[in-house]
Amino acid sequence: MVKRLSILGSTGSIGCNALLVVENYTDDLQVVYLTANKNSELLIRQALKFRPEGVVIVDESQAKTVENSLKKETIEVLTGREGLLEVAKRDNVDLVLNGIVGGAGMEPTLNAVKAGNNVALSNKESLVMAGDLITRASRKSGAEIYPVDSEHSAIWQCLRGEDISEVRKLILTGSGGPFRTRRLESFAAITAEEALKHPNWDMGAKITIDSATMMNKGLEVIEAYWLFNIPPEKIEIVIHPQSIIHSMVEFQDGSVKAQLGVPDMKIPIQYALSYPKHKFTKWESLDWNKVGELTFEKVDLMRFPSIQLAYAALERGGSAPAVLNVANETAVYRFLRGEINFTEIPMIVEEVCTKHTWKKHLNLDDLLDLESWTKAFVEAKQITV
Fold it and tell me: What domains, with CATH codes, occur in the chain?
């Protein structure tokens, strides 16, 4: 049976890798919708190649370009944020892959789940910002969430067939990014160019900076809490520089299951798209004769304070994780624009988390208002680089 897909964020890293998977399984996977933020040229090429029923270009200044290029095709063209949210909730698909970067992906996830669509989720910000809303919506509609992040995919695979009550802890691995061994005194001088050079993974700019600050691990802790219903004290982070073990599960008897593989996002994407099957793949696999040592280190929280901020936000709950996420995202883009230095990212995040008006229960309007307030606060923060 052919699985019909919506791919949100098809021109980004996750979306492009997902389309490589689709190319290898054309008898099993069919693209129904593609969406992009600004990259109209790539979206047009993808549309002409995969022949979806519809596409969305969020940046309305690019709308005419897409419409004119596809006017001779039987492909519906939707535009703007409204078009994205509309496609996310259309239920003529079997699976929605959300590869959108940042907080912009939260509401499409919520729309998809409310419509009863299963979601292959790469957008960790969805559960960080709206874990309670999305979890309640999925219970009501019956929609399932399939994790795409390599760490959560690893845990998902390790938990298959297991009793969650027998889990002692989840162990999220992280490479430590490009600054694992750099002198801490020099962190303030880190440039965007240096921070964008991840040693193992090829990712988009925002996610790569999050890896350099290790905020990505903090966000993954919050995501794991919602995905697997595991309390924060049972979620641990360990540094694993080689990025071969993607995460582990330790059980009450002390046994540990780990999922290993080359650092290639096509593998967890393919598993989410073909779940519950591990299909034959042409991707690179581990060569055990070349793997060498697998090493592990304790996280240095002085070096990576963002991790503590994420745990604190999760413990506090309510509006705290959403503010953490939006403040970090906005601060990362300020760093990329050269407006603040590397060490000021977690400093700003901590200040916003402390100063915002905390609220225990949030609806979607609350979240959107909080997102606007947080962005404005961080953008207005006066710092001399």
Answer: 3-147 (3.40.50.720), 152-263+290-316 (no CATH)
